[in-house]
């Protein structure tokens, strides 16, 4: 993997990631851009025990632009996008970031602090009409290497406690740009859902291994190979939810071996294609990497990927209404065993 | 308030609630209905620490029927709905319940138990085209009395640990029936978001009172009267979020005095109308009553209502994407102070 960092017109960093043999990356960002906005503000709710990022500047972010004005396509003579030239995979700091290093000390008071951290956009492919599921395994492997490199780099940034690579896919899930892309957040705290797992691991440090061995012998496995098992968890919250567990304890993406990285790509592609085959429709989904926090539980937390869809049937979505959004209790209308069966039956078995 | 309980054709209970002077409620449910489905199954995720209700029968529930076939309108000679005759306010057991008493003992094993409890539908008005905001104060007062009566009744049911009256409003939030209605859940456990508050109250039993007194002197108050204050919380997670606090500690709706009930109706109507006036559009919202659990924290938990919208601007919704859904961390694109100002400015001041 070759990386080529450049600076965008407003000072933000952009990095091209390439395979051996790819052409050198050149070109300058010639746009006139205003300076990036200041960091968001974090506010703590002691009763809920969570931080909220108030990022009012994000109201102005680019919203479903026409494909001729896609900010994630390579720039053309007609339209100068966020990426000055051709690319294979590229990451850059979000122009409307939820977290950044442009903090000011003005508003430090109890329960309020600046949204220090990092928010990056990652384009998986220059093909505007493509999708992650249509990448070839070699490009998925490159994407995984980029996640590893950015996890390492962001873990070293001041204040970052959790690095979170993710993809939101589909307008139904609120994606404002249709070009295939993901994001990477560097949170300046451990998010509640990870903290909850850490708490549990304190009393049961081997929980991930135990869960994997139980699931491997279960009817909810969707696909597996030597290094990974993809299964629908027994208490799935979403109609279609698949967790990808590596077969050994390791804290984060950088810790994956060459073999584990090679093995991930085809398995993930297989399950993504099952998602789209399910209803013969591009399935809206969230793909979320759960990594160990930068400074905690490195020996007990196990890296894994959670992939879930909000579609429960053609024309029907799972919404987070009062029970989920206010009480935190999920009602799942599809049984996990049925979801696993439907995903297994959607395509020929993975080999 | 007068209540008239009857049985529906499949044995479910329906209760008419009326004001003095309303006609007697009669009429029989003459439909042929299959027996109601068995209870859902609860599954526990030890790492997340939450129960999920797997309710596969709900996939078949009525989905956006034409208004001539609304199951919540009073029955007519042409269409027999869930409600046999005319009504003012009515509650009945959900035909596709997330929780019920139709449990079987088949599947009891570690981390799995039957979805014992209760799920009721509540029609606020027979007017199919109406909305809660268009009720008059007298009918809101009746609705509040019904919430109180059902909270008392459901609190006494075996296994129910938390009674949760709520309204989901708007297709954007997943409402499958447009007739103005809410629901009441009787959960057989304390939901995670309430449990989190209980945990905090252990170390700070006066937290609710402290928060109220701080918010009362703050720029985030939207409307208030002698018994209630409606404010946008400092760490709001949603673009437009208003909490309604009573001015004294009390555990649940039944504990409200006559005066507090009378005072709630106009205040709540005022804020609901501000919601709709904000963008001159019916705002999709969730209204969620946080009550003390049936058997815990009755002296420290304070009843309150949380009202929040997923609309952040005309044509733009707040989606729960990866940060919210996977990590539990909210990014709010509207500052709480700005939201309060917008709501105050949407209509003349509340008096």
From TrEMBL, chains A, B:
Co-factor(s): Zn(2+)
Domain of life: Bacteria
Catalytic activity: alpha-D-galactose 1-phosphate + UDP-alpha-D-glucose = alpha-D-glucose 1-phosphate + UDP-alpha-D-galactose
Pfam families tied to this protein: GalP_UDP_tr_C, GalP_UDP_transf
Domain called Galactose-1-phosphate uridyl transferase C-terminal: residue spans: 215-344
Keyword Transmembrane in annotation: no
Annotated GO MF terms: nucleotidyltransferase activity
Residue span(s) of domain Galactose-1-phosphate uridyl transferase N-terminal: 40-191
Enzyme class name: transferase
Pathway named in the protein's UniProt entry: Carbohydrate metabolism; galactose metabolism
Gene3D superfamilies linked: HIT-like
EC number: 2.7.7.12
InterPro entries the record matches: GalP_UDPtransf1 (IPR001937), GalP_UDPtransf1_His-AS (IPR019779), GalP_Utransf_C (IPR005850), GalP_Utransf_N (IPR005849), HIT-like_sf (IPR036265)
UniProt region (Disordered), positions on chain: 18-44
Keyword Nucleotidyltransferase: yes
Keywords (A to Z) from UniProt: Carbohydrate metabolism, Galactose metabolism, Metal-binding, Nucleotidyltransferase, Transferase, Zinc
Family: Belongs to the galactose-1-phosphate uridylyltransferase type 1 family.
Protein name: Galactose-1-phosphate uridylyltransferase
Originating species: Actinocorallia aurantiaca
